Amino acid sequence: MKIFGIGSTVAPSIAPAHPSAPIPVQGPGVGAGIRVDLGETGFRIFPLLLGGAEFGWNVDIDTSREILDTYVDRGGNAVYTADSFTGGRSEHIVGQWLHSRGLRDEIVLAARVGQHPDNPGLGPVNLVRAVEASLTRLRTDHIDVLYLDGTQRPSSLEDTLATAEWLIEAGKARAIGAFGFRAEQLVEARILSSAGFPRLTVLDVPYNVLRRKDFEGDLRLVSGAQGIAVTPSHPLEHGFLAGVHRERQKTVKSVRAAQLADSLTKRGTRVLRALDAVAAEHGVSNAAVAVAWLLAQRVVTAPIVNAYATQHVEEVMQAVGVRLTRAQLAEIARASE
């Protein structure tokens, strides 16, 4: 059974530089020459981040390492995790893998902080403690892209960015991203950056062909105007857009089953049929088409995708070589209305 998971999730205002023709990712290192600028961070990455939300939860440590190895073998170079993923277990697994493989300098490491129960929120003290704890679990002295989780609204964005500035000056973070920020907070952050505070250069927001409303409004306009690189999480809507589950699982009661059930609507069925048709035309999986749809959005640089098995990594990485036509994009968009 094939089940896809989603990162619990990019050139700023232009479409990513896809190859001129579809390039199926089949052999080791095929994607190594495919890189896009991650906004203004200074990093160039494969246009798909491998997320670690399932590591240590639905995926054991050995399978997690196999998934990470497969992603790198196929040319990937950006890994995303968070201190809230399985209480930090995901960070432990990623850190052990980086150390054992000796790949720290080759991988763009992105980590999100702000939701760990020991150091919740983005207040100055908890933010520093959260980063220090993540660094320990990740077995590194710096995080390349530090995502600030604003789900718990910071009491003072100025204090948060001042702390982020200290973290950069101390060499503990290289670039700052945002998660859970509203459009007005991005505007406030840009005003503060003109006074010398660090800029928010990357945005993680749940976004896919089924989940469009939260992003396709002020948030999209502001991120595009500011040149923020968007790295959308949940590109497969908890695995639904992979097209494997099309009926309600009456005998299975779990968080994942409930999430899939929420998408099993008339609209969801229309979207799957549209993905079916386009996938057949390109000879790839529905998951690859769903991610290719995101990559065709001009503000998106690299979706964050989690996987349960190595074959999922190979399938979804094919999205980078899929160029959807205007007619196909229109067909998928109509189905999602």
Automatic annotation (TrEMBL):
Q: Which Pfam families match?
A: Aldo_ket_red (PF00248)
Domain NADP-dependent oxidoreductase: from-to ranges: 48-335
Query: Which Gene3D superfamilies does this chain map to?
Result: NADP-dependent oxidoreductase domain
GO CC entries: cytosol
Highest taxon of source: Bacteria
Task: Identify this protein by name.
Answer: Aldo/keto reductase
Q: Which organism is it from?
A: Microbacterium caowuchunii
Read off the lineage from the record. Bacteria, Bacillati, Actinomycetota, Actinomycetes, Micrococcales
